[in-house]
Amino acid sequence: MSKTYHALVGGHFVLCTLAMIWPGALIANRIEPTVFGLPFLFFWYILWMLVLFAGLWTAYRVRHGGRRHD
User: Minimal CA–CA distance to 45: which of 22, 13, 21?
Assistant: First the structure.
C-alpha cells in the first residue's frame, strides 16, 4: 500500500484518539446538554468510537477488498 494510505489511516486514528482525550475531552466535558439521555461527554466518547470504527473498517475494506485472509 502507498504511503498516502498509511498516512491517512494513521491521521484518522490520531485525530479520533485526540478527540477522546486531551484537548477533545476539554471541549466536551459538560453535563448539559444531554443527548439520548446521556451527558454530553459520554455521547462524545461514543460518537468518536463509532467514527474510529467506521474509518478503520473502511481502511480494511480498501486494503483487503472485503476478503477474509486466513
Answer: 21
pTM of the model: 0.82
Percent of the chain with pLDDT over 70: 93
Backbone angles phi, psi at 60, to 5 degrees: -65, -45
Q: What is the pLDDT of residue 49?
A: 96
* Residue-by-residue DSSP string for the chain: --HHHHHHHHHHHHHHHHHHSTTHHHHH--SPSEETTEEHHHHHHHHHHHHHHHHHHHHHHHHHTT----
First to last CA, the chain: 19
CB count, 10 Å around CB of 48?
A: 20
Q: How far is CA 24 from CA 1, 51, 54, 68, in A?
A: 31, 14, 19, 35
